[in-house]
Amino acid sequence: MTAATTIWRATVLTLFPDMFPGPLGMSLAGRALASGLWALEARDIRDSATDRHRSVDDTPAGGGPGMVLRADVLAAAIDAAEGTSDRTRDRPLLLMSPRGRPLSQARVKELAAGPGPLLVCGRFEGVDQRVIEARNLEEVSIGDYVLSGGEIAAMALIDACVRLLPGVMGKAESGAEESFSQGLLEYPQYTRPQTFQGMPIPDILLSGDHARVAAWRRAEAEALTQARRPDLWAARPDPTRTKNTTKG
Ligand code: SAM
Q1: In this structure, are 44 and 119 located in the same domain?
Q2: Is the overall model pTM greater than 0.90, yes or no?
Q3: Does the Cβ of 148 fall within 6 Å of ligand 1?
Q4: Of 117, 140, 169, 224, which sits 20 to 30 A from 156 (CA to CA)?
Q5: CB of 150 closer than 6 A to ligand 1?
Q6: Mutational test site, ligand 1, from 101, 132, 144, 147, max ligand atoms within 8 Å of CB
Q7: What are residue 38's DSSP bridge partners?
Q8: Domain residues for 66?
Q9: How far are the Cα atoms of 10, 175, 193, 195 from residue 38, in angstroms, in the given order?
């Protein structure tokens, strides 16, 4: 494999390729895209339609509202996209789906460490089950709510991965201590002014005592996680966690 094929690449299959790069063309991800730290390819599913009307969907078998993306058209779109990439890289094939396993920072890290995924964006009522099975698509959800299409979900996933790629985040933006990095939500952040609407920055953060600052931040992160995300708190492997020290 040459160095040129190792760049992290996201391939998006969508009915709305013009939505991309959208927000991914700006700020951190956009600068990294422009400087070649990652690559993005948005492909129109409709290009794989075979009939005169370029149809991609049809009514649900068994009745019901809405339309369903056709298995044959979507499979052809996936195969065409895979044909243009290096198959030996064994890239993950993802389907953005509210039925999927919720996206986690751990899965984001795995995806960022690989060659980059192919992401299928559903529309309408979703996609024919047979293409999910035939192409072994991994269904990924970005939360327990329903979007009108998979594009915004795909952008969220790509953004989360891109910021972890080597060279994308500067040292100043390092993700080492941010939410989920140690199974905890992040501690509260403060900056100038020293007093805002009668609320001062906690004294300890201005003390210059790095050990006490670190202990305070750890305790705040643990308290926040206990209060807001008992699921994360319960899943933490660390048995030496401290008691809740701040109010909700
Ligand atoms: N009928 C589907 C259901 O009830 O599960 C919802 C289809 S939704 C209107 C259309 C498309 O948006 C989905 O196929 C999926 O690609 C995307 N989508 C919607 N919500 C999502 C979520 N929470 N996470 C990831 N993708 C989502």
Answers
A1: yes
A2: yes
A3: yes
A4: 224
A5: yes
A6: 147
A7: 8
A8: 3-162
A9: 8, 18, 37, 41
Tens digit of pLDDT for each residue in 198-216?
999 999 999 999 999 999 9
Domain of 228: which CATH number? 1.10.1270.20
d(CA 24, CA 173): 17
From CA 15, how far away is CA 123, in angstroms rounded?
8
In a domain, 246, yes or no: no
Shared-domain flag, residues 126 and 24: yes
The 3-state DSSP composition of the chain as helix, strand, coil percent (nearest 5) reads: 40, 15, 45
The residue contributing the CA closest to ligand 1 atom 8 is 148
pLDDT given for residue 181 in this prediction: 81
Same domain, 199 and 158: no
* Pocket lining: 98 vs ligand 1, CB cutoff 6 Å: yes
Nearest atom within ligand 1 for CA of residue 142? 24
Establish if 146 belongs to a structural domain: yes
Nearest ligand 1 atom, CA 95: 16
Q: What's the pLDDT tens digit per position in 20-51?
A: 999 999 999 999 999 999 999 999 999 999 99
Q: Which atom of ligand 1 is least distant from the CA of 127?
A: 14
CATH number at residue 37: 3.40.1280.10
Q: Does residue 240 lie in a domain region?
A: no
